[in-house]
Amino acid sequence: MSFPNSKTTPRRKEKARTWRRLHKWVGLVLTFFILAFALSGVFLNHRTAITRWDLPRRWLPQQYVYENWNNGAVVGTLRMGPDSVMLYGSNGIWVADTFCRGLRPCMDGMRPGTDNRNIRAVAATSDGQLFAISTYSLYRFDRTAYRWREVEGALTDDEALTDVLSVGDRLYVVTRSNVYAAAAPYTRFTAQPLPTPDDYDPRVSLFKTIWVTHSGDLFGLPGRLLIDVVGIIVVVLCLTGLVVTLFEIPIRLRKKRGDPALPLRRTWTFSFVWHNRLGSLFIVLLLLIVVTGMFLRPPLLIPIARTQVKPVPGSTLQSDNPWHDRLRRLRYDAEGRRWLLAASSGIYAFPAFGEQPKKLDNTPPVSVMGLNVWQQTGPNQWVVGSFSGIYGWDLSDGSVTDYDTGLPLDEMGGYGRRGGGGRPTFGNPVSGFSSDFAQGPVVFDYGRGARLANYPDMPFESMPEVFARDGRISFWHFCLELHVGRLYRSFLFAFTDFYVFLGGLLMFLVVLSGYIVYRRKYRRKKSRRKKRE
């Protein structure tokens, strides 16, 4: 490789100035957003360490404040008696009468922090005991003390919990990779055998591969810690970049006035040297994080969404468990005398644990984000809801209808059919459902909130002010919203969905231009040193 001549052409000078200006001014404008990317990314990598941290929702834009039971405030209910209903969701557990009046909290004994009180499911056993699960905790309700008690050490893995249900005299708890069962007194859980399904494909989605590469989880905790280091380096690069850019003017002014500028000059030199060293040393990892992040949101997400690849050898994606990180929900079909298992790849049926699950073809569309509603409303009649809408499912003939209109679903629209899983919808993202209130079935829309299924023109019971006033959001969820840019929707509007892509593209240019400027200066100095020798 030849080094540039000592004589620099005007065109080359102008090109070098362009790269410097791009790195300096685009980087300066993006500093806040880059810092937000880096710091939120570090926290997102360690969810279990920050489960106790949360923020009042009223501090955030209006879209995050609870209104008409929206934002996942209610994902389900449980009838506790002839005159009381238990509501649960992202705002914890509450109890009301059958008209949803007289609402009062029921969270005493739960671990502090919204993430520990984000309840995903509640189940009542045949002997009258109540169990609830949050993201990482299993709780048992003590009726005598009227408080929840965490069931510690019951499960053998530390995976996120996805479902809990009671069938017969057994309690079942579902994690992302296993199903556990326990008989009374429900203190000892054993993993249930789940053979390889009939459609098993050892490959994993390219999206998941890029996702865990971006977070570092591809290689577990060591990988995450490495990405954390890179995130901290990004913060240092932003701060030193600010010093290099903003200290130039006061240094020049002091020189003109004849005032001492040595302290500022030393700070500037120190920042400049380390800005260059760290940026050049970690250039590959910086570009890797930026590019992989861009593929996790539209438009680059679209072409890779359905692509399957072999798991990276030696990574966390490689597992002997065919259900690794795939399980979502579990139900028992009493009429068909079979289990129904919802996974990321579809809905499966099997007569008993230990027998091969077989994928069902005639199933409702389900968002890639998973099932939010899966409830039996009558013999062979089920309601299935997700961010792809809400549907009625008749297991006797496999027919699927739109729950709101009763119209049959398009032949090609099913989760397990050709055409794949349903995409999230903007018009009907369903986050919860209840058939326990006196007003009839209630559908909870994530954005618009509660609506009566049988009387769409009639309002559901108004949400009490205390529910919204005391609403909190977990710090991890806040970091996620900040990381993907949804917190900026009030001024980004329609561009919010492309925030990650556009921000990543500009960050890529900032990093690349900085490295180009650095290499040209380095080569120039090296060339001059050789000539002196």
UniProtKB/TrEMBL annotation:
Keywords: Membrane, Transmembrane, Transmembrane helix. The chain crosses the membrane at residues 225-247, 278-296, 498-518. The keyword Transmembrane helix applies. InterPro entries: PepSY-ass_TM. It comes from the Bacteria. This is Peptidase.
